[in-house]
Amino acid sequence: MNTNSNVYTVIYTTVVVTIVAAVLAFVASKLGPAQNANAKAETLRQMMSAAGIKPTDELYATKNADILQLYADNIDEAYTIDLKGEKNGELGTAMENIQLVDKLKPQNKAIKAEGEVTLPVYVFKSGKVVILIYGAGLWGPVWGYIAFEHDCHTIAGAYFDHEGETPGLGAKIKDEPWFREKFAGKTVEWGEDPAFRLEKNAEATGATNAVDAITGATMTSKGLNEALNVWFKAYENHLGLGAFFNMLEEHAISETPNAEEE
Prior knowledge:
Number of helices: 8
Largest sheet: 6 strands, antiparallel
Strand content: 15-25%
């Protein structure tokens, strides 16, 4: 065959592309499970950091398999809700079947459009309740986990992450422990607009639902502030105004044996 002909070029290119595609597909099939395991363990680390299960540095020094076991040992229940605040799904919590909610961008769009959502709620045996938040930063998505005390009004802890915020500026939402530590003890004022404020000089007002924005990271702070308030609003019918607390109280009463049974 004439190696300078167009036919040869087309055949050669097709063969090379086919071989490369096959190799990439093989590599992806082999690496896929490991990548999924890493992503799941990373999510659990962030969630348990917010809930205070262990210090963040200890969680990141723990192997993936042990992270899964730690989560399974500490989680009480996990489920999803809709915008009405009603349960619409259960999430597996056993080590061999831990289920998490992903595809957060479509969920964010659905919240804003008041469409169908499956918002995760993670209830730990310690009494901490963890929810998810997601939004747009300067260069990509930002997200995080907010842990509440048993009253679902007081923030117990937080953890934030991003896809590509500027190092030394917007990236501080993840890199600087002091930033996420500022959220502990703050409150979410359900029913108010906004329910929480992440703004410049917000703390100077003395409000308990306010944290100062990061200096020099205006767009990242604005994006995170919007993410917090959009998702807090989405969770409000379930967690806000004592709804979740009342549900827990009713659950506790129903599980208490009566005097005759004792």
